[in-house]
Amino acid sequence: MATIHDVAKMAKVSVTTVSRVLNNRGYISETTRNKVFQTMKELNYQPNELARSLLRKQSNVIGLIIPNVAHPFFAELASHVERYAYENGYKIMLCNSHLDPVKEKEYIDMLKRNRVDGIIMGSHTLEVKEYKELHSPIVTIDRQISEEIPFISSDNYEGGRLAAQLLVDKGCRKIAHICGNLELQLLANQRTAAFRDVMAENEIEPIIIQTDMNVFDEQQYEQIMSRLFAEHPEIDGLFATSDIIASFAVKECRKADKHIPEQIKIVGYDDVSAANWITPSLTTIRQPIAEIGRVAVDSIIRQMNNEPLEHRYVLEVELVERLTT
Amino acid sequence: MATIHDVAKMAKVSVTTVSRVLNNRGYISETTRNKVFQTMKELNYQPNELARSLLRKQSNVIGLIIPNVAHPFFAELASHVERYAYENGYKIMLCNSHLDPVKEKEYIDMLKRNRVDGIIMGSHTLEVKEYKELHSPIVTIDRQISEEIPFISSDNYEGGRLAAQLLVDKGCRKIAHICGNLELQLLANQRTAAFRDVMAENEIEPIIIQTDMNVFDEQQYEQIMSRLFAEHPEIDGLFATSDIIASFAVKECRKADKHIPEQIKIVGYDDVSAANWITPSLTTIRQPIAEIGRVAVDSIIRQMNNEPLEHRYVLEVELVERLTT
DNA sequence: TTGTACGCGTTATCAA
DNA sequence: TTGATAACGCGTACAA
């Protein structure tokens, strides 16, 4: 692979000159500029970004740590993050933590060794202390680590409220809610808080089921659903904390021959594309995933440039009514 | 961020010594080794991989170019690729081409500038010539560019045959097939060839619908499905070239009040997780996505090390019967 | 067992 | 308008 020296030699100029035309800095005569461009084409020269990054102390790489890209929510998030990063001249290094604290820590160290310009954290299995000691531009998705570390989330409380209220308004009186592990300090837990509040306001005894969520384990979902319906056959409303879980609920209803939405109504969360693939298509709470991705990238870039930035972004959610309510 | 010099100074040794304990090379006394490790901890030293890569001419980064991670097949592929890469000490740079030739070319150049050790190409919008001129370890998924460039695919012909034969065996006589754009030279086209062959063997007039696939456009899928059922209300069997398309078929059947599997049977392709989320769960042709990812990473590493390697991997597919047939 | 000095490919500084 | 040189952080040949 050709280096700047090769170009310089072939174009019979100094490396400085080549560097100049490359970065369009300082004065260069039209003649030399053209000559240099010419030889760059000839040699198919691609400047070595590793050397550039080393010198500039800036790699233009952003690390993205998420539980697993195979999960639709994170897949869509990753897609948008990648797109906004690319539009701003950044590349994405993809890391799936599988919610394993060891792996998450190793990934963080790996990213630091590679001198990424910032880290977008969508996985949160470590202690607050560890994130604080990072000393790197960082932004978290759906978890507030501390006052200093910016976070992005959508309005989880409002989302939970919208979902719960919809079920109540539609006449449900035996309502279940399936959430993730509430031990983890995730902002998503506010959905459950909102659900509780709405149930209390309406004097409905809530049924709340925690999933492990430590692995997006689909077998687990199936089991939980079948147990739920076995133990509470009278359920007429269900609010699931993800569209995928809601899909399994739909599936279980089919098995149990409970008609949707006549006998039971179901509300999902996220509004990933999959919510619209399944039959009947899911009523759900839409998170602005593209916006979350955009703001995450933007926040990293602002931190790098010491530009002013918000430390909390709480984006709006929206109820999307489809066929399960 | 601490450098090797900082560590050396604080440990009162030379940088060489630090480098030695870091890479575990040559002789070092236990005493100095411990002392160095100690100060590395104290300074929270992370060796600069950019500098290392520059020197070793090896970045341990693999570029992954796919149409879009938001599509379940590529999301799962990316997840497995990332995992195998990580297990072998490699990182993944994620690129979504959106099947745009300009973007794909820019990504290839970007990856070369960043001196990635290899490129896994899951997006194929360029001319054969351009791929041949890459001079970099490369492996393609589901497209054969030339004799020299290794490719990985699953047995598309067999997959198509299994799907078509199943529908025939189950008694379907009016069978439709929805495939991608056959103009692109993808190996996936063999599914359609197999479908044609099976239909001919059984003297069934095939109905074949091409989708644009240039964007995984879900609105397009909805339109195609509704037109298909309007024009051919007699259809009793459908083979879709992806599980997502099959999901939309299921949805349309519900709208048209066609019962699955009694009145119409549907077979998908890929066996992504989503095939099992929808109701009824999809009969589909399983591609070994994890294996494809593993072989892709392995192929890149072999090419780097000039180890012997296959130039064609055609992995086995499997019929997974669920509730739509 | 440890240290000195050079080179990896670039860019910035200074000089011509 | 152009060129020589130092430096970025690291690994290795060679010397001690």
TrEMBL record, chains A, B:
Gene3D superfamilies (alphabetical): 3.40.50.2300, lambda repressor-like DNA-binding domains (1.10.260.40)
A molecular function (GO) term: transcription cis-regulatory region binding
Chain ranges passing through the membrane: none
Coiled coil: none
Signal peptide as annotated in the record: none
Residue ranges of domain HTH lacI-type in the record: 2-56
Keyword annotations from UniProtKB, A to Z: DNA-binding, Repressor, Transcription, Transcription regulation
PANTHER family in the record: LACI-RELATED TRANSCRIPTIONAL REPRESSOR (PTHR30146), RIBOSE OPERON REPRESSOR (PTHR30146:SF95)
Name assigned to this protein: Transcriptional regulator, LacI family
Species name: Paenibacillus algorifonticola
